[in-house]
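Entry type: protein chain
Record version: 2
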Amino acid sequence: MLIDEANIIRQKRKTIKIIISDNGLLSIYCPKLISTSKIEEILKSKEKLLQKKINKIKATNNKFDNIINYNQVLLLGKKYFVVPTTKVGKGYFTEDSLLIPNKYVEAEKVPFYIKKILKELSSKIITNRVGELSKLSKKFKYTKIVIGNFKSKWGSCDNFGVLKFNWKLVMLSPKVIDFVIYHELTHLLELNHSKNFYINLENVCPDWKVQRKILKEYVFLLNLYN
């Protein structure tokens, strides 16, 4: 049963909060006086859904183990091995590897250094691509592009025409990146997800459903390099 593997945290609160961690562990935050049998009853009612989510997280962790543990890095959908070396003063990509100075490994700062490199590339790649795709329609008029670190989203658009994109987009394939950019550009026309929004999106990105499905597989990237 799920309760046998759950971490139960009793605290001063009125409701029960269930959290599944990035490694698939279940934590239950609950009122101090609630009985274990009541917690078990609540978990039982949600068992199928919770188990499905746990299994999905564990499957993702197995599939992308090297990425999650920083042994590999993604750039434009391609995997590169992270290779420490004393022969370089600054990291750079080869055909199949990212070479990084050995001192960052010794200082346990590999994720920090990878993030620095990817953010620099992301700013240029995403900004340039937004400019290219926005030229496809005179209706796509934005005021500003912001590349930032967002914990739960890939991009956004506000009613002032400001487009915001997560720097982690640079790890995804070009087609998925284009889908996210098209999605936010379309919000310049419709600041909602109405029927008209999806009609406009399909006009510029006919395979958006395929790319959205692929994007969901990489949601774990939002929790990396934080």
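Comment: The CA atoms of residues 80 and 217 lie 19 Å apart.
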